[in-house]
Amino acid sequence: MEMICRCIQIKIFIAIVLSALSFNSLADTLVMKDGSVLMGEILKQENNTLKLKTSFAGTINIKWNEVKSFQTDKSVTIMLVTDELVKTKYVSNVSDNITQIKKEGEDWRTAFKTHNVAYINPDPWRLGDGYKTTARANLSLKSQHGNTIKDEFEIDGRLEFRSLKDRYTFMFALEHDNSDGTTTADNWLLSDKYDYFINKQRYYGASLSFERDVFTDLRLRTTFGPHTGYQFYETKALNLRTETGIVKVYEENIDEEDHDYLAMKWYMDYDQFLFNDLTQFYHEQRGLWDFEKTSKITFNSWTGFRFPLQFGIVASAEMELEYDSQPNPGVHKTDTTYRLKIGYEW
Question: With contact defined as beta carbons under 8 Å apart, do 63 and 48 qualify?
């Protein structure tokens, strides 16, 4: 019996050793500048962050400037800022400014400035393969029944398709509030936009939007026309784009006379993660400057913080500002709304 037990123990030990050797032979090896060594699978590098999938801690984020070198079992694809693609299994940050690689199939190595490494294993859409889809939907509800009867309902969302050459963006927002049986807010916005990129940052396109706000006397505002834009940043950590263009505006009012005019349109969309991706600050603004009534300017802006939770769920605290320099009679120039929202991103 003792002999049988010893044989079983030896077999278990051999199986464990072979399993470990098999794992190590297939795992990527990453060496940090402090000398520590990590084993796992190199997934990607973007915005100075390297993602490493490990067996002991899941996927971890590592600052790229803290990495000394790595060697992979399978080749990774490096995209330089010039859009040149390099396949390699060996990368070394020989200094704070120089990155050295060994090209696949070649014995010699080549070096370049570290900041010229745009991505490692970039997303397929950056290579011209299909579209990246991102979406967000937010909901805010409030119901109060007692001495005061109040119901508030707000929903907004955004859907975007991005390829290497173009982008489709669809947006909507709806608000309906009721207090003691009286409607206190009734407005909605629907917008779609197409952008075509002539290079990595410059693009042009066209947009069409519909807007209604009963309590500012606006039955329907239709806006359409071309625009030109500039994409300053486009990463998960930081996004910034601005646009301007000439658009045609048709305004149908409830009590006042209808009005149609040419206007200069501007748009800005900015978001940035803070505190190790725990919080995202954002600001979005769209506005019109009437070419006929040059003192008339209208704009809407949404400013706030998003707090990613779990499983794609996001909480938000937001301030919306609406401004009209020449509002219809009985309407204030500014209208400010504060919101707490819960949403889902994918």
Answer: yes
- Residue 55: band (very low, low, confident or very high) from pLDDT cuts 50, 70, 90: confident
Q: How many helices (H) and strands (E) does the chain have?
A: 1, 21
CB 318 within 8 A of CB 302: yes
3-state secondary structure of 164: coil
Quote the pTM value: 0.78
Q: What's the gap between Cα 103 and its chain centre?
A: 32
Does residue 315 surpass a pLDDT of 90? yes
Nearest to 33 by CA among 80, 5, 70, 61: 70
Please, what is the Cα angle at 162 between 161 and 167, to 5 degrees?
85
Question: Which is it for the CA torsion 272, 274, 276, 278, positive or negative?
Answer: negative
Nearest-angstrom CA–CA distance, 251 and 259: 5
Buried b (16+ CB within 10 A) or exposed e, 160-169: bbbbbeebbb
- Tokens coding 314: 């996001």
What is the per-residue pLDDT across 85-137, written as a single tens digit (0 to 9) for each?
888 888 888 777 888 887 766 665 677 777 778 889 999 999 889 999 999 99
Query: Residue 162, SS3?
Result: strand
Distance CA 27, CA 42 (A): 9
Residues facing 289 on adjacent strands: 264, 297
| Domains in the chain, CATH or no CATH each | 29-122 (2.30.30), 132-345 (2.40.160.40)
